[in-house]
Amino acid sequence: SEPESESEAFEPEPESESEPEPGAAEPESSDMEQPSLDALIAARAARAREAEMDAQEAPDGEGPDLLEEGA
């Protein structure tokens, strides 16, 4: 019986920007969470960028966004 695995599998990819933290990707099943962590970090970064862009309404939002992600 491993309900934790089911919970992790039930959670969609961290693309759901509705939730602040998609389960925080518990590192219990690192095998499956390894790629998810990268996606999670990327999604979190993108969310932060989007939030900043929304707040500042930056006209060249794509510019700093790409630069930040590249670095």
Short précis:
By secondary structure, the protein is mainly alpha-helical. It contains three helices and no strands. Helix content is 62%, strand content 0%.
Could you explain how this protein is built, in words?
The protein is mainly α and 71 residues long. It has a domain at 29-71. Helices cover 62% and strands 0% of the residues. The protein has three helices and no strands. It has helices at 3-10, 30-56, 62-70. The chain is rod-shaped and about 30 Å long. The protein starts with a helix and ends with a helix.
What key attributes describe this structure?
71 residues, mainly alpha, rod-shaped
Strand content: under 5%
Low-confidence runs: none
Count of β-strands: 0
Helix content: 55-70%
**Biggest pleated sheet:** none
Integer average pLDDT: 63
N-to-C CA distance: 42 Å
Q: SSE string, helix = H, strand = E?
A: HHH
C-alpha-based Rg, rounded: 15 Å
Instruction: Look at the helices and sheets and give the structural class.
Output: mainly alpha
